[in-house]
Design brief:
This protein is an alpha/beta fold and 297 residues long. It has helices spanning 10-21, 47-57, 73-78, 90-104, 109-119, 148-154, 176-184, 195-203, 206-213, 234-240, 247-253, 283-296, and strands spanning 2-8, 26-32, 38-40, 43-45, 125-128, 135-140, 145-147, 161-167, 187-190, 218-221, 224-225, 228-229, 260-264, 273-276. The protein has a domain at 2-36 and 126-296: Rossmann fold, CATH 3.40.50.10680. The strands form four sheets. The chain has a seven-stranded parallel beta sheet, with helices on both faces. The longest helix has 15 residues, at 90-104. The protein starts with a strand and ends with a helix.
Length: 297
């Protein structure tokens, strides 16, 4: 059985995670970004882990985050005390409160995630990139320092950036679970996630980066179609730091990492670049792409 490791972050990453989850006869492990994790409302949020988990369980919200058919009673009352755009659904909050309790009981993020993976009967491994705190911090051209949620939600990813730091990555440890699946992987796939905000934190952990760099079958899925992001500000972030939001920019960003690239259909193919449908309008599109990658790329 082919061992597949999928590197995921953000909503785009969660959509293709669902595709690989729909492929039979593979052993799937998903290594997930935790650079977005923050303490809000007095509890720890792991938005990328939850997006993947909810997606695979079939309970994701309409926009790819949170749980479907949720209510926002607690969040709406909270906003009476503090004005903010950020909202957490009541069902989603219940999970996060229970996660917080498990942390208080001494469990690690990997152990907590395994509990919920089992709770939702998911037939794969969901692995946080680390149990240690790594926080994506963004500095604007106006020298304003923002947390990820402030930048992405409150500021709507509008400010131009001049610097991104992955605070804590230098001292973050790689878990035995992540180390094991990367070493044993037949294929590593980096999802169509924001390279700077979703994949960057994972690659900032040196031991993870070394294991991926040393692998001989690493496939990167482009997050761009016609020089625009599939979702989110990845094209804007690329331009902020002098990269082209296309295959040329991806080759520079992922130099020494990727062996092959997947771009959108009708884009120019070249050596190690394959043109496929990466617009996941339906789940079947994601599943078909995942099957092609596993079988042919």
């Amino acid at each position: 059985m082919k061992k597949i490791v999928y590197i995921s972050g953000g909503i785009g990453g969660a959509k293709l995670a669902k595709g690989f989850y729909g492929v039979d006869d593979i052993e799937l492990s998903i290594v997930i970004n935790t650079g977005d994790d923050e303490n809000i409302h007095g509890i720890k949020l792991s938005p990328d882990i939850d997006s993947v988990m909810y997606s695979l369980a079939g309970i994701e919200g309409e926009f790819g985050w949170g749980q479907k058919e949720d209510t926002f009673n607690v969040s709406n009352f909270y906003k009476k005390y503090k004005t903010q755009l950020f909202s957490i659904g009541d069902k989603d909050l219940a999970l996060k409160l229970f996660r917080n309790q498990m942390f208080n009981d001494g469990k690690t993020l990997t152990e907590v995630t395994k509990f919920f993976t089992d709770f939702y009967n998911l037939n794969c491994a969901l692995l946080p990139m680390t149990n240690d705190k790594v926080q994506t911090t963004l500095t604007t051209v106006d020298n304003e320092i923002l947390s990820f949620q402030d930048y992405f939600v409150e500021k709507k990813a509008d400010p131009k950036l001049k610097k991104i730091d992955y605070v804590g990555s230098d001292s973050a440890n790689i878990t035995s679970e992540v180390s094991s699946v990367l070493k044993k992987a037949d294929q590593i796939i980096i999802g169509p996630s924001n390279p700077f905000l979703s994949i960057g934190p994972i690659l900032s952990i040196n031991k993870i980066r070394k294991l991926i760099v040393s692998h001989n079958n690493v496939v990167v899925i482009s997050p761009f179609i016609n020089n625009k992001a599939l979702k989110g500000p990845s094209d804007k972030n690329f331009r902020d730091f002098g990269f082209q939001p296309n295959i040329e920019g991806l080759k520079v960003f992922y130099q020494d990492i990727a062996n092959q690239f997947i771009v959108h259909e009708n884009e120019n193919e070249e050596e190690n670049v394959f043109s496929k449908n990466i617009l996941f309008s339906e789940e079947s599109v994601a599943v078909n792409l995942a099957k092609e990658i596993v079988q042919n790329v």
